[in-house]
Amino acid sequence: MASQEQLAEVVRLLRALPADKIEAVRHYAAFLKERYGLKQSPDESAPPLDGEPLGEAGATYAPRMSRRDRGILDEFAAAIRKDFPEARLWALGSRTTGRATEESDLDVCVVVSRHDEAVREKISHIAWEVGFEHNLVISTVVYSREEFEEGPCSVSALVRTVLASGVPA
Q: Residues 151-163: pLDDT tens digits?
């Protein structure tokens, strides 16, 4: 079994990855938590990993988004739906659990009818524009409806977290 120091180093390395690798970071963090029973980030200066369970099985932190963050999420969702009217969005992460710092990004899962590089680029561009106006990084994970509902990703820790504790927009 890995020591707390080893896990702390892995968490620090994961957090140093670029924003476009956020999905891999979240999947790996969930794997570490499940495999090693990690309840909280071993690096006490950092916030715990997202989606940490509370006492009973299946219960997660109640969303505690600030009004500012909720407003930014709603603005981002409206901008996305101009180009993708069928889009479903959920915020997750530290900005929904009340654990955000000034440097925290706003993590948003976006589900659209079809998903390709052009769609991903358009969504990233909208995230950048809305985030820039509010001095906030908006990190997105984009799925097609089919990937989200029926593909291998549908049983991933990330999708389970989105459905269990994501804040819908």
A: 998 899 999 999 9
Phi, then psi, of 164 in degrees rounded to 5: -80, -40
Q: Are strands 106-112 and 138-144 parallel, antiparallel or unpaired?
A: parallel
What distance in Å separates the CA atoms of residue 43 and residue 45, rounded to the nearest whole number?
5
CA–CA dist 134, 17 (Å, integer) = 23
Edge-to-edge strand list for the sheet holding 106-112: 138-144, 106-112, 88-92, 167-168
What is the four-CA torsion angle of 159, 169, 143, 103, rounded to 10 degrees?
Answer: -80
Amino acid identity at 78: A
Look up residue 90 and give its two tokens.
């959920």
Report how far residue 105's alpha carbon sits from residue 137's, in angstroms, rounded to the nearest whole number. 5
* pTM given for the model: 0.63
Helix axes 22-36, 157-165, angle to 10 degrees: 90
- Structural domains in the chain, sorted by start: 67-168 (3.30.460.10)
| Buried b / exposed e along 149-160 (16+ C-beta atoms within 10 A) | eeeebeebbbbe
